[in-house]
Amino acid sequence: MPGHLRSLGITSSKGTTLRQLLDGAGPTLRLLTGAQFSGRRIRGSHVSDLGHPARYLLPGELVLTNGLWLDRVSADDWVAEVAAIGTVAVVFGLSSEHTSTPQMLVSACRSRRLPLLEAAEDASFVELTSRIVLADGDPATVARRQLDQHRRVRELVREGGDRQALVAFLHRETNLDLGLYGVDGRPLAVLGRPAPDSALGKAIRLALGRSLPADIGNDYSAFDVPGSAVGSLMVVAKPLSSIDDEDRAIIEQVATFAAVQDEREQAENASRVALLSEVVASLWADEITDNVLAYRLSSLGLEANRDHVFIATALSLADLSAAVRTCDASWVVARLHDWSVALVPAGQDERLGNLRTTLRELRGAGPVGFGSPGLGSIGLRRSLVEAVGGCLLWGLHDSATSSRTVSYASLIKLVPPQMTRAFAESVLGPVRAWDEKHHTELMTTLECFIRHDGHLQVTATELRIHQNTLRFRLDRIAQLSGRSFDSIQHRVDLIIALNSFG
After folding, report:
1. Could you say which residues of the chain have pLDDT below 50?
2. Which pLDDT does position 7 carry in this prediction?
3. Residues of the chain with CATH 3.30.450.40
4. If phi over 0 gives left and psi between -120 and 50 gives alpha, with beta otherwise, what is residue 10?
5. Cα–Cα distance, 385 to 195 (Å, whole number)
6. What single string gives the DSSP state of each residue in 289-328?
7. What's 132's DSSP letter?
8. The domain 288-410 is classified under which CATH number: 2.40.50, 1.10.1200, 3.30.70, 3.40.50?
9. Quick one: angle between helices 317-325 and 197-208, nearest 10?
10. How many Å apart are CA 363 and CA 367, to the nearest integer?
11. Where in the chain is the domain with CATH 3.30.70?
């Protein structure tokens, strides 16, 4: 219904009082109780017809109601609840159901010393509340506005509001041009002036380095979206120094709630990560056929008849995932032992180059390995081995670390585990069997001897045996394994076999 409220015309920085509201509203609003409290200042407003509205109210608010709760809750209980919160006054709106203010509500407000105002049937709550001027700079008012914003954002998220709804809410509250972007540069929800590529690129780099909020250009700033992993970021068409505290607070608040959308996407992506992890483990162990591989790649949304490249890094899975998303959100990541790996389509030199640069910027002193393009189980396994091998041997081709020692153990890790176990069993299987049958300690003796670089005295001392006893045990190990300790090559066989039993 159209309202007939006159403009209050109040410009005082102290805010609107109940008396000023009454005077400005004229005959459409009259005071029923609490005239002695008409000087109270209004610090907010809330419209509610709930039977128990207290949990949604803030102190100093003007509560407006049509009394739809009267058939469920007594007027005395309802007034007691809102008065206890510190409500400044109650406005009861007349309607066809209640053509006059119920006397029991009047009595309850009078006994609780709570002002009660009656709004005519043609008075609009929306127009009435929109004409209330809040005190400028009042900390309580600012806090109340922020709490109210927080409450409305929570309701928006709870009702399933998406990124577009969150950005629209933020745009209404701040009147700023802003948007949510993925770390691959995709605009997820943008209102107003979009971020230029140069500013967005800087924002993405800072987001990956966990260095937001920050200015990203003369007229732009960016905020991170907190979460378990970097999924998106907020860009505002205004420098940080020009964003006031209230706007910054609501921006950071909405950015936090935007993480809900990131978490939903991450949950959807978890199944793809698990599936690729199975594929990677099977390729590494050389236990997958071309047909099964093609089916699983198809399930991942990848083309089985197209060359792909494996990338391995010491980064965490979350960091690799974030870096990969900067190039293409459809690329898949997984975990293999100590390494995080990504499987990406070949033939995308520019994107792969960007990813290589990003990884090198993030890794610091850590290794990154790139495999060559591969097709099918054989080709993809080769690419995977090359990528992990590049990580294991990365120091060999780095002039800054060329003096780094690379152990044979790094090479062994490139061999499928079933092959190393088979080798270990062929060399030391008879030795272990002898220990089990005769309750001896030949394997323990070998491990100690190798750990002490073949020093008889040191080994015998640790084992608390005579050197002659140690020599006897070593002779038995040589006999059972077919390897002589006098041969360097045979010693290497024994070392590799022992390590492969792990």
Report:
1. 1-13, 137, 228, 365, 396-405
2. 36
3. 139-263
4. beta
5. 40
6. -HHHHHHHHHHTT--TTS-EEEEEESS-HHHHHHHHHTT-
7. P
8. 3.30.70
9. 180
10. 7
11. 288-410
* CA-wise closest residue to 297 among 286, 311, 284, 283: 283
Task: Check if the beta carbon of residue 262 is closer than 8 Å to that of residue 225.
Answer: yes
User: Rounded distance, CA 214 to CA 207, Å?
Assistant: 10
pLDDT in tens, 411-452: 666 666 777 788 888 889 899 999 999 999 999 999 999 888
Q: CA-to-CA distance for 289 and 346, rounded, in angstroms?
A: 21
Structure-token pair, residue 331: 């690329």
SS3 196: coil
Q: Which residue type does 455 have?
A: H
Q: What is the pLDDT of residue 390?
A: 79
Residue at 40: amino acid letter = R
- Could you tell me which of 366, 173, 155, 377 has the C-alpha nearest to residue 279? 377
- Three-state secondary structure string covering 235-266: EECCCHHHCCHHHHHHHHHHHHHHHHHHHHHH
Q: Which residue type sits at 111?
A: S
> Token pair of 220, please?
């732009």
Please tell me the predicted confidence (pLDDT) of residue 454. Answer: 87
Tens-place pLDDT, residues 35-73: 998 888 888 888 889 899 888 787 888 999 999 999 999
Range list for CATH 3.40.1390.20 in the chain: 18-130
CATH 1.20.120.140 fits 417-501, yes or no: no
**Percentage of the chain lying above the pLDDT 90 cut:** 24
- b/e for 252-267, b at 16 or more Cβ within 10 A? ebbbbbbbbbbeeebe
Yes or no: say if 117 and 91 are a contact pair by the CB < 8 Å rule.
Answer: yes
What is the model's pLDDT at position 5? 33
**Tokens in use for 196?**
């230029």
Structure-block tokens of residue 216: 């990203």
- At the fourth CATH level, the homologous superfamily of domain 18-130 is HprK N-terminal domain-like (3.40.1390.20)
Q: By CB neighbour count within 10 A (0-12 exposed, 13-18 middle, 19+ buried), where does 165 fall?
A: middle
What is the C-alpha separation between 9 and 208, in angstroms, rounded? 50
Measured CA to CA, the distance from residue 433 to residue 429 in angstroms comes to 6
Locate 197 and state its tokens.
Answer: 């590529």
For the CA atoms of 28, 124, 140, 138, the dihedral, rounded to the nearest 10 degrees, stands at -70
What is the CATH topology of the domain spanning 139-263?
A: Beta-Lactamase (3.30.450)
Cβ atoms of 100 and 125 closer than 8 Å = no
pTM: 0.41
